[in-house]
Amino acid sequence: MSPIRILVPALALALALPVAAQAAERGFYAGGKVGAASYDDDFLDEDDTSFGVYGGFQFNPYFALEGSYTNFGDIEGSLTPPDLGTGSVEPRSFGVAAIGMLPIGNQFSLLASAGLQSWEANPDDDLEDVVGDRDSTDPFYGVGAQFDFTSNVSLRAQYQRYEFGDADNDEVSLGLHYTFR
Q1: Does 72 fall in a domain?
Q2: pLDDT of 30-48, one tens digit each?
Q3: I need a labelling partner for 46 at 20 to 30 A (CA). Which of 8, 21, 84, 145 fits?
Q4: Helix or strand or coil: residue 34?
């Protein structure tokens, strides 16, 4: 028997195995998150509870595309300078991000994300007189870790920074999602 007759099928099988293994890692996922948000601009620097939903498609163990909605709560407090009184703002964000994943073992992964968001930060009447209505499209990025309880259920801890024009919004969150395989 010729070595070519053995080598070609063996090589084809060896090249197909990683594709078969990655097929098990593919799938749509959806979940929710809750966290702590810190909003900081020229007039207001306060914290509140955030919540959101996210979903996406994981292409392989290393890459996913994700869409998200995040509500950063009702950020309220004393305005700077103090003679402006008090005010509040309700920031929200719709985003799309690329997620890079670095698997460490079978159940744990490190994450890095970068994307674009369409946001709005609606101020109350007192603050609107000072800053006006605010909305735009800006980048956001983050890092985190994910633990897979099963092949379908995962827990994610994440830090993300959202740019809101001249304001920054930092979020630390804990999310739980389900992957449809």
Answers
A1: yes
A2: 999 999 998 877 666 678 8
A3: 145
A4: strand
Q: What is the distance between the alpha carbons of residues 44 and 118, in angstroms, rounded to a whole number?
A: 21
Residue found by looking up tokens 């009447």 in the block:
125
Q: What is the DSSP string of 81-135?
A: SGGG-EEEEEEEEEEEEEEEEEEETTTEEEEEEEEEEEEEEEE-HHHHHHH--EE
Q: Which two tokens stand for residue 151?
A: 């092949």
pLDDT in tens, 110-144: 999 999 999 887 776 666 555 555 788 999 999 99
Angle at 25 between CA 22 and CA 29, to 5 degrees: 150
Q: Does residue 14 lie within any of the structural domains?
A: no
Q: How far apart are CA 44 and CA 131, in angstroms?
A: 11
Structural domain count of the chain:
1
The pTM score is: 0.79
CATH assignment of the domain containing 40: 2.40.160.20
